[in-house]
Amino acid sequence: MMTAAYRIEGATGAWEVVIGLEVHAQVTSNAKLFSGAATAFGAEPNTQVSLVDAAMPGMLPVPNRECIRQAVRTGMAIGAPINKWSRFDRKNYFYADLPQGYQISQLYHPLVGEGRIEISLDDKDPEAETKTIGIERIHVEQDAGKLMHDQHPTRSYVDLNRSGVALMEIVSRPDMRSPTEAGAYLRKLRAILRYVGSCDGNMEQGSMRADVNVSVRRPGEGLGTRTETKNVNSVRFVMAAIEGEARRQVDVLEAGGTIVQETRLYDPDRNETRSMRSKEDAHDYRYFPDPDLLPLELDDAFLSECEASLPELPDAKRHRYETVLGISAYNAGVITADVETARWFELVLDQGAKPVPAANWLTSELFGALNRLGRDIVDSPVSQTQAAELLSLVADGTLSGSLSKQVFEIMLETGEDPGAIVEARGLRQTSDTGAIEAEIAKVMDANADKVADYRCGKDKLFGFFVGQTMKAMGGKANPAVVNDLLKKALG
Fold first, then answer.
1. CATH number 2.40.380.10 given to 433-490
2. What DSSP line would sit under 258-269, residue for residue?
3. 72-108 tens-digit pLDDT
4. CATH 1.10.10.410 domain span(s) along the chain
5. Would you tell me the crossing angle of helices 235-254 and 179-196 to the nearest 10 degrees?
6. Which residues contact 462 (CB under 8 A, 6 or more apart)?
């Protein structure tokens, strides 16, 4: 299925949007990039700050091997070459939350080279068009601190807990052409990072955020002047920021104005971007090699260890689910989109559940219940063992589909095991042909006119007789047995 091109209609014609994203992903590590200070989220301000992070005189940075390892593994997961030789540079600028007066980053010789991510333009359609988004590079850098403006009426305070935290800056090429593509790219990138374990992807906590580069042009023309909207912290806000900023640029250009290369902020309350400062070029930051850090030189043994530690990634897992386990393309896509869901599902399979019914139940019954309860799958009130037991009771004929729904609702409320629920409440499905035939006879006697109509050719009435029989049996009759006996009784 081809997706219609995204265009913004102006008074003088259509405009195309060009989008690139710079994603800052906090590296999963117990310590910072160049110090041993902790990185846990939510600590009291300035309680996780070493002398290196505070830029005390004479304190020298020492690279954290785990941070480098995680960045290398991320690069391998997107099919990018790893540069055995890379270097740290100083990015010089003054800001109150940057105690050194510079940020240690990588401009000229990044750790990871060009990679790619394939996205689906419609996650709900297994036949939807796909697109490859290029990754220009991944470089490792340290985060700045945080200014706190709401602690005092006339002063701002600085929290340096984040100062020195390791970030991977994942820079895409300007390959995206719509807010939908940008959203799909972010979701796919987040999934890869979480599978690899190199970033937890918690955008609401700031461990993954995006700088959004947007420009507009007439279709077929060269690139326009771009703006950069900083630190957008949700997929929804990224998509909204792109749409609003693109519309603003079109309005400016059609009014005869020009786009200023600048840094902007997104205001979610007003759903608009606003100017922050002029956008600097690389030479404005006076980059130069950091004299306190030797270049990184990686050997083959280190790279081999990194590669061997990679898990099965989302695309490979989805393909295996479809081709080996026989799961539908849609269910496979839904389950593999999030690493926690895939882990939960595979633990259910480890308990003996069959893949196809387990996938169907997970994406319908369990997801529906979790949405209703406002919970994530890691907080599911039903365990993988209980889920497998419930599916087993359906598979061996103990429960019908309708009875399994009743049992599941009781499980959600009480936490009881499904087998115990079945025994305590007498919810076992019956295949007793004598009892079912007796109820069928009663239903037919009470609806003689409909029996006559059915025998005269109104075949759709068959469903009515099934429903009435199941109702008379309290939903406990085996539907397959009911169907067979009704066909014989109705003639």
1. no
2. ----EEEEEETT
3. 999 999 999 999 999 999 999 988 999 999 999 999 9
4. 433-490
5. 150
6. 454, 486, 487, 490
